[in-house]
Give the backbone structure.
Amino acid sequence: MDHSDTISTLFAKLWQPYAAVTPQAQSVQALLQQEGEELRNDHVAFRTYNRGPLPLTRLAEPFLKLGYQESGNYNFEKKRLDAVSYSHPSGEHPRVFISELRVQELSEQNQRLIDTLLARLPEGIDPEDALQAKIDWPQLPYEDYQSLQAESEYAAWLSAFGIRVNHFTVSVNALKGYPTLESLNQRLVDAGYRLNGGDAPIQGSAACGLEQSSTIADRVDWNFAGDSQKIPSCYYEFAKRYIRPGEKELYDGFVTQSADRIFESTDARHHRA
Ligand code: NI
């Protein structure tokens, strides 16, 4: 069965709650479209907890039903994450990267905060609704956000924003006017965007099959239980894929070391300097 239209519709729906908190993704998109580019997404990424009603395996279900297949498993030691990537065999749709935090590796206090939050989620959640940020995500007290942030930026982001796409990724391979990731990065910097990693924004290499860069996350006003605070939301990512030595197809997976650094794009530390 051909799920192509269903998949395109789903990605259009996934874009909405992401773009709502990521104004720069919309403006970068507009900038490239004005230059005549037709944008393709290399991948989207989701974050979740390994406990509660929406672990990685549940969030993957809607994609598996649409014909997606697992393309890799990853362990991020420092960030305490497990992740799985999925690709559609047609090659026509964005890859999906889902990671989950190993909550048991956090302090007892932060585990309790996360359990309290997860206990407030509505019962019988449809994972497809969760992916689209259609569920009523509980508001977190700001002190809890700060406590989580001290130990895991990932946990803080996820507890505040809930399940939604953490980043969309522009496929640089599909751009006509940008033969290299460097040329795109330069265009973005010239247009006033700030990239994660400053003078060395590119993670990965042609040899490992994947080069990536990302913007520093927008800071948005966000409602916590009782008050509103300005916190980093989501970033926009840019990926160029290569054929690895000895292989025939463009590399389809992800590189753990790069992603470990890219995850820092939403790190509040980048915004305090
Ligand atoms: Ni990514």
Observations:
- The mean pLDDT is 92.
- Residues 4-20 form the longest helix (17 residues).
- Residues 43, 45, 97, 167, 169, 237, 262 surround nickel (II) ion (CB under 6 Å).
- The CA atoms of residues 137 and 162 lie 6 Å apart.
